[in-house]
Design brief:
101 residues; mainly alpha; 3 helices
C-alpha cells in the first residue's frame, strides 16, 4: 500500500511539473510563431498582419461614424430639428472622438 501511495505522489508531482512547464512555455511558443516572417504573407509576420488589419478596421469605423454624424447633422439642419436632435448628434460626436483619436 505504501508503494502505491509513493508512486501516486511521484506521478502527481511529475504531472504538476508538466502542467507548470506547459503553462509557461506555450505562450512563449505562440509569441515566437507570431513573430516569424512567413513567405505566404510576403515576408511579414502574423503579428504585423493583425496590427495592419486592426488599423484598417479602426480607420473604417472612424470614417463610418464621421459619415453618420455628418448625415445626422445635415438632416437636422434641413428639417430644422437641430434643437431636438442635439443629444443624438452629441452621441455621434462622442463615437467619432472614440474611434478617430
Amino acid at each position: 500500500m505504501k508503494l502505491i501511495k509513493a508512486l501516486s505522489v511521484l506521478f502527481g508531482t511529475f504531472w504538476m511539473a508538466w502542467v507548470a512547464y506547459m503553462a509557461f512555455s506555450v505562450p512563449r511558443d505562440v509569441d515566437e510563431a507570431m513573430n516569424q516572417p512567413m513567405d505566404a504573407l510576403g515576408g511579414s509576420t502574423i503579428g504585423q498582419e493583425i496590427a495592419t488589419a486592426q488599423a484598417k478596421a479602426k480607420q473604417d469605423q472612424c470614417e463610418a461614424w464621421k459619415l453618420r454624424a455628418e448625415n445626422a447633422w445635415n438632416r437636422s439642419v434641413e428639417k430644422g430639428t437641430l434643437d431636438r436632435d442635439e443629444d443624438m448628434i452629441a452621441e455621434l460626436d462622442q463615437q467619432v472622438a472614440r474611434f478617430c483619436d
